[in-house]
């Protein structure tokens, strides 16, 4: 399954649609303005909130939290002791599963893996539309909404880190 994401720097109040490879709107990323922390919702076409994404307020390093139905689903942060700045760890709430995200985050060329197995690829290479990247969910049993939320979080964290370094 391939999804197309218009590449905006996520900020407060930014809303945009994620489409499938046929051009049909599938998910809405709804940026919430006027909040103390960065907050987004991933909604379906009927406006139902599928996933809540927010920045963890009191953390030693930037951390994003993904929730579904009011409960924690995953926590995302830059991997500690990584020589590469573009390596993130996604800790699922079940405690036993970690996903690795690595690659060129700023270039929108990275992969999401579980235990060495590829789950999704994020890339601009396939597309000719400017300012758009694709999220290609490789495994049929993977949760596309979660993987899209992971991509949104990782890009947001990387861009925030880049702004903080300037």
UniProtKB/TrEMBL annotation:
SUPFAM superfamilies per the record?
Answer: Tubby C-terminal domain-like
State the Pfam families in the record.
LOR
Taxonomically, which superkingdom? Answer: Bacteria
- What family is it from? Belongs to the LOR family.
Query: What protein name does the entry list?
Result: LURP-one-related family protein
Organism from which the protein derives: Streptomyces regalis
- List the lineage, top down: Bacteria, Bacillati, Actinomycetota, Actinomycetes, Kitasatosporales
């Amino acid at each position: 399954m391939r999804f197309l994401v218009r590449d905006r720097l996520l900020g407060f109040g930014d809303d945009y649609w994620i489409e499938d490879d046929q051009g049909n709107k599938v998910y809405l990323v709804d940026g919430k303005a006027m909040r103390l922390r960065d907050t987004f919702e991933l909604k379906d076409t009927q406006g139902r909130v599928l996933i809540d994404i927010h920045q963890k307020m009191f953390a030693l390093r930037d951390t994003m939290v993904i929730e579904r139905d009011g409960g924690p689903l995953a926590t995302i942060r830059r991997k500690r002791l990584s020589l590469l700045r573009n390596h993130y760890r996604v800790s699922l709430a079940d405690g036993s599963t970690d996903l690795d995200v690595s690659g060129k985050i700023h270039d929108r060329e990275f992969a999401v893996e579980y235990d060495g197995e590829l789950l999704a690829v994020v890339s601009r290479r396939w597309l000719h539309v400017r300012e758009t990247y694709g999220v290609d969910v490789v495994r049929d049993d993977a949760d596309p909404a979660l993987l899209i939320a992971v991509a949104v979080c990782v890009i947001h964290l990387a861009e925030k880190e880049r702004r903080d370094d300037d």
